[in-house]
Design brief:
heterodimer; A: 112 residues; mainly beta; 6-stranded mixed beta sheet; B: 115 residues; 7-stranded mixed beta sheet; 11 strands; globular
C-alpha cells in the first residue's frame, strides 16, 4: 500500500542536539500528523497540523505543514534520552474517511 | 482504563488456522480503524467503521480478512486460513468521527505470529 516518503530512516542523537526529520507525499492531505511509537506500544500523537503553512510547537517539538500540502517536517530541540524511539509522519484526508497514510518511520537512537 | 484496549496482546498460531483479534475503543467514539504494521514499517490501513457499518474496507488484503462491529463499539478482526505473511502487529484506533475531529487514538496492538 501507499506510504509516505520519510527521511532519514534512522539517526543517532547526542543529548542536547537538535534533530530534524521530514516527510513527502505525491498527493495532498488535509491534515499532517506526527506520532511516536515505543516498543510494544501503539503510536502516540505528538503534533497535528491542519492548515498549509502552519507551524506548531509542543514543548521541544516543532512541526510544519508544507505550503504545497504534500510535505511536513518535525524538529526536536535539545534532545534528551527519552526522545529515543520511532517517529512516524501520517497524512489524513477527510474525503477518505480520515484514514491515516503513514511514512516508513525514523528510528532515533542514542550515539554510543 | 480510558484508552483503546486490544486483546490478546500476543497470538501465536499455525498456518491455516483461524484467528480473531478484538478491539475495545474509547467509550463514545464512533469511528474505529484497523491497521497492520509489519516489522520495520509504518502502519497500513485495513478497514474503517463509522458506527456499525464498514465505511471503507479497501485496505483488506484479500477475502481471508473480515471485520465486524455489530453494536458500534467493540470490533473483531477475523483472519481465516492464516498464512505466514499475515504475521504482523495489528493496531486498532478510535476517534470521534468526521464531525468530532480527526484525532485517532491507538491501542497497544496485537502481535500475530503465524508459524
Amino acid at each position: 500500500g501507499q506510504q509516505l516518503n520519510q527521511s532519514p530512516q534512522s539517526m543517532f542523537i547526542q543529548e542536547g542536539e537538535d534533530v530534524s526529520m521530514n516527510c513527502t507525499s505525491s498527493s495532498i492531505f488535509n491534515t499532517w500528523l506526527w506520532y511516536k511509537q515505543d516498543p510494544g506500544e501503539g503510536p502516540v500523537l505528538l503534533i497535528a497540523l491542519y492548515k498549509a503553512g502552519e507551524l506548531t510547537s509542543n514543548g521541544r517539538l516543532t512541526a510544519q505543514f508544507g505550503i504545497t500540502r504534500k510535505d511536513s517536517f518535525l524538529n526536536i530541540s535539545a534532545s534528551i534520552p527519552s526522545d529515543v524511539g520511532i517517529y512516524f509522519c501520517a497524512g489524513q484526508l477527510r474525503a477518505a474517511g480520515n484514514k491515516l497514510t503513514f511514512g516508513g518511520g525514523t528510528r532515533v537512537l542514542v550515539k554510543p | 482504563g480510558a484508552g483503546v484496549s486490544q486483546t490478546p496482546s500476543n497470538k501465536v498460531t499455525e498456518k491455516g488456522k483461524y484467528v480473531e483479534l478484538r478491539c475495545d475503543p474509547i467509550s463514545g467514539h464512533t469511528a474505529l480503524y484497523w491497521y497492520r504494521q509489519s516489522l520495520g514499517q509504518g502502519p497500513e490501513f485495513l478497514i474503517y467503521f463509522q458506527g456499525t457499518g464498514a465505511a471503507d474496507d479497501s485496505g483488506l488484503p484479500n477475502d481471508r480478512f473480515f471485520a465486524v462491529r455489530p453494536e458500534g463499539s467493540v470490533s473483531t478482526l477475523k483472519i481465516q486460513r492464516t498464512e505466514r505473511g499475515d504475521s504482523a502487529v495489528y493496531l486498532c484506533a478510535s476517534g470521534q468521527g468526521l464531525a468530532g475531529g480527526n484525532t485517532q487514538y491507538f491501542g497497544p496492538g496485537t502481535r500475530l505470529t503465524v508459524l
